[in-house]
Fold each of these.
Amino acid sequence: MRKSVLILGAGSDVARALARELAQAGYDLQLAGRKVEELAKDARDLEIRFGIQSRALYFDALDLDTHQSFYEALKPRPMGVVAAFGLLGEEDLARHNQQEWLRIIHTNYTGCVSILTIAANNLEQSGEGFIVGISSVAGDRGRAANYVYGSAKAGLSAFLSGLRNRLHKRGVRVITVKPGFIKTKMTRELDLPPRLTASPEEAATDIFRAISKRKDVIYTRWIWRWIMLVIRNIPERVFKRLSI
Ligand SMILES: NC(=O)c1ccc[n+]([C@@H]2O[C@H](COP(=O)([O-])OP(=O)(O)OC[C@H]3O[C@@H](n4cnc5c(N)ncnc54)[C@H](OP(=O)(O)O)[C@@H]3O)[C@@H](O)[C@H]2O)c1
């Protein structure tokens, strides 16, 4: 039987690169996001290039009330689900503006919990499959520069860890992806250090390998695992004085 993967936030640069990897490996794809017309073009392109079946679907992570019916309408039910959507937001604005911090938290945390809870319950019944959640190194330690976003990603990492613990016995794998820097639409305004910055294609290859090799948690680029080990271990009395 053909295997279908659902990609949520499929317009993300990382998600688009991952879609190509998955299509090349023969997975059919359901591309979900807010810009359906653009996703439909991607779906057609993937079908022509890789001979798979693909289609585009409307999905808004913030529209929680629609998540159950969205998932129930999927045909076929996916055996893999990738949550790639995310929002860096404007941290300075979030310090004063309730709408902004709510948008950041609901996109990166609540929206993910909502749709992945539905996906998890469904996959649990079938007794196989995988869930990929794209979190961030920003969730490993709160920093002045992006602690609202970081706290949402920290919540997401904890959620995925618990989900993995729950679903391991049921044959469903849960993979947490913690990117450092990736050169995408999200970071186009930022001046990123080249040695620590992955391309979307490099991040996608790391994610695809994690799915194939049954990994639990990966950092991309891998060096971030060690960078964050150091950063997590800086004593709070020192950390609070730093600007990193
Ligand atoms: N780039 C980095 O350095 C970096 C580092 C750590 C973690 N990450 C994480 O990696 C993931 C992929 O991000 P990216 O770097 O590829 O950024 P991106 O190209 O900006 O993609 C983000 C995607 O999220 C979608 N999205 C935002 N809000 C949504 C909503 N309410 N409903 C549905 N989709 C929504 C956007 O869709 P629209 O096009 O409709 O806005 C966009 O396609 C994200 O979870 C991000 O937090 C990225």
Amino acid sequence: MTSQRMIEFVHVRREYRRADGAHVTAVDDVSLIVPEGEFVCLIGPSGCGKSTLLQLLAGLDAPTSGSIVLKAKEIEGPGPERGMVFQRDSVFPWMRVIDNVEYGLKCRGVRAPERRRIARDYLARVGLTHVEGAWPRELSGGMLKRVAIAAVFANGGEVLLLDEPFGALDYVTRRQLHDVLLALWDTPGATRRTVLFVTHDVDEALTLADRIVVMHSGRIADDIPIAAMRPRNDDTLATPEIIAIKHKLLAHLGLQTKGAHA
Ligand SMILES: Nc1ncnc2c1ncn2[C@@H]1O[C@H](COP(=O)(O)OP(=O)(O)O)[C@@H](O)[C@H]1O
Ligand SMILES: [Mg+2]
């Protein structure tokens, strides 16, 4: 286990000027250090700045002030060491499944036989070998997410930015995808990717995260380590410690939990 710092937000601020002239501070003086290999879930009410923070880290947007440092180098734009998956539109509809998974490798100049081998390996690991030649339109929503996850891992990015990737899926599919994602993240012998995963689902955050960062009005309102052992299941998530954290998170989201003992 290494604790080398992978990402550092230093007093990051992002202001927008809306069409009506109003100023919005989407991210307000965020400072945060994420060590290599950590799985961080970002949670907070709608509009609190989660997606903005991810876009800034992706290099798709720039801070109004402050800086974001990735492996000791300030971010100036997008790069292949950062992969993204969004809630929608994370696969190219005009490419077959296997070509979607290979795309990033192709962009990086990896030769055809090698990238096919890597893509097939990741497709197998997300359980999609049987549809490698299919078109995205032929797949279910859950299968499309498997393709997107296979692609982002196959591309080899050390940092994965996932913005509510499972938000539109049904409960059962979402839970299956948690297992798929964690199996790839926690492959024995492989270096763990550093993950920033945005969600508004408390149970999802508790299932996945090493650490849950709570945002509120553009600021970090809480930063909670989750020490529960892995793999986690409904029992490991039912300990008094985790239930206490769950109540705290729900309160952060404005949901008062009546009858909480914790
Ligand atoms: N491009 C933009 N122009 C103007 N306002 C924006 C823009 N992007 C985000 N905002 C505003 O910034 C705030 C944070 O948005 P966002 O990061 O999308 O929140 P979240 O992902 O937590 O729901 C919101 O008030 C939103 O309306
Ligand atoms: Mg968002």
